[in-house]
């Protein structure tokens, strides 16, 4: 009996646990990342269910606690409860901490925790951490030098992630504080709301600490501009911030990833504003009652928020159907890779657009800024779009069947969930529990990312050492 007891002693079980953890990290870091995010969601669900987390001191229903935890950790911003009034100060602090943890990114978080457990990053963990800087790296084969971050820079990247998040949120909070005071917010309340808004904007979450949200700042262009800049920085991604911090305005030294991210982001930002201007200028419920200057500014603000910001000055349900469709398209694209934004990512759209243009011109290779984009990157981009569209389609069908709600409202909220945007037509707050769980799963899939999930599934795939005969099916 003593030998059996000694073999299962606490010390032995602890060593077995750490050995299993190190094996999981080194053998499949992407699966470890998914496990970490799932564990965080379970932990925050339990804490948000506690009576101390609600303003009334009652237990929050498990469906609402789970959805809030998913929306918080996945920095989405959708809610099934009134975020300003339902939660106690303890609950708000939990949500504040959760969005910052989620904002660091699933792969970066997994790499940091893996570093704590295994003491050092192995080669595969380094490859995956580099994959966070550019998800297109999450494939087999040689890692090209031209890609965003070299393996030797991974440690510096991880530091940049944490430091940039803290520093940018601090600067945004300092800028917001006087703006909140001028808006009539009491000094002590503003001392809490400023860092709260800073965290929610930089992480692209969109939660607000007050019942009216940013509507009370509808005429305060300074506060709204600070929020837009913060959302933009969060949506371009940590690798781009890292590149800008190192090379500043030396554009020639920017990576291809950074160039594609910035150019595509700006194009979508301006194009989205123009579309909303054209579609909403005569809508009396939105921009129709504003003058030209207000209409232009609010169109740019709406364009920025539909990319993943989640704040809204107007009621989304008041938009024309055409505008809601345009907003859905922007939300589906999302922000930059390895950013706090969701969606299929702007680099995915850029790669596919360049590939289509190259094919139309009859070019044998896909090239941009003097660099060739390999075919496996193009395949990953196609896979991301296909999987994203599949997730959105299935979720829309299931939720529409459950709720019998108008398909336009269901599609808008589902894409908002997949793109971790946080804007809502008003449907999410009224969902039954079964639909809440489907929406939560959509958020999780959108935040973890289709490339990460594919990498997790393919972690044990074997190389094929032969090729089959070629035969061309008819396409188009």
From TrEMBL:
It is a multi-pass membrane protein. Signal peptide: none annotated. Keywords: Cell membrane, Ion transport, Membrane, Transmembrane, Transmembrane helix, Transport. InterPro entries: Cat_transpt (IPR003445). It is found in: Cell membrane. The chain crosses the membrane at residues 32-53, 65-87, 93-117, 165-185, 221-244, 256-279, 329-357, 377-398, 435-459. Pfam families: TrkH (PF02386). This is Potassium transporter Trk.
């Amino acid at each position: 009996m003593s030998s059996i007891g000694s073999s299962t002693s606490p010390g032995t079980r602890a060593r077995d646990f750490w050995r299993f953890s190190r094996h999981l990290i080194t053998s499949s870091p992407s699966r470890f990342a998914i496990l970490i995010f799932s564990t965080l969601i379970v932990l925050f669900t339990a804490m948000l269910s506690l009576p101390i987390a609600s303003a009334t001191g009652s237990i929050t229903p498990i469906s609402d606690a789970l959805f809030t935890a998913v929306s918080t950790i996945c920095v989405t911003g959708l809610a099934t409860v009134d975020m300003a009034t339902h939660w106690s100060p303890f609950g708000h602090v939990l949500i504040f901490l959760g969005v910052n943890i989620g904002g660091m990114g699933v792969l970066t978080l997994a790499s940091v925790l893996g570093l704590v457990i295994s003491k050092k990053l192995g080669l595969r963990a380094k490859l995956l951490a580099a994959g966070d800087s550019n998800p297109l790296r999450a494939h087999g084969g040689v890692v090209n030098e031209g890609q965003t971050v070299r393996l030797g820079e991974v440690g510096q990247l991880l530091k940049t992630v944490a430091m940039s998040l803290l520093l940018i949120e601090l600067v945004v909070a300092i800028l917001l504080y006087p703006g909140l005071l001028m808006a009539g917010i009491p000094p002590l309340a503003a001392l809490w709301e400023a860092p709260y808004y800073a965290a929610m904007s930089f992480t692209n979450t969109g939660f607000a600490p007050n019942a009216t949200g940013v509507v009370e700042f509808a005429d305060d262009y300074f506060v709204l501009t600070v929020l837009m800049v913060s959302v933009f920085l969060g949506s371009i991604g940590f690798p781009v911030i890292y590149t800008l911090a190192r090379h500043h305005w030396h554009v020639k030294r920017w990576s291809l990833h950074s160039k594609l991210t910035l150019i595509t982001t700006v194009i979508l930002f301006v194009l989205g504003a123009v579309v909303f201007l054209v579609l909403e200028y005569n809508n009396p419920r939105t921009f129709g009652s504003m003058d030209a200057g207000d209409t232009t500014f609010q169109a740019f603000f709406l364009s920025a928020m539909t990319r993943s910001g989640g704040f809204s000055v107007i009621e989304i349900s008041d938009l024309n159907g055409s505008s809601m469709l345009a907003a859905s398209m922007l939300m589906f694209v999302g922000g930059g890779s390895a950013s706090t934004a969701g969606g299929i990512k702007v680099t995915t759209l850029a790669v596919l657009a360049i590939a289509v243009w190259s094919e139309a011109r009859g070019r044998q290779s896909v090239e941009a800024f003097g660099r060739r984009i390999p075919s496996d990157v193009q395949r990953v981009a196609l896979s991301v779009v296909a999987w994203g569209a599949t997730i959105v389609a299935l979720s829309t069908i299931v939720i529409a069947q459950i709720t019998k709600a108008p398909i336009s409202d269901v599609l808008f909220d589902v894409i908002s969930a997949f793109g971790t945007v946080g804007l809502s037509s008003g449907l999410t707050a009224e969902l039954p529990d079964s639909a809440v769980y489907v929406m939560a799963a959509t958020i999780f899939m959108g935040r973890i990312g289709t490339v990460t999930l594919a990498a997790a599934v393919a972690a044990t795939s074997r190389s094929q050492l032969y090729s089959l005969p070629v035969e061309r099916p008819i396409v188009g």
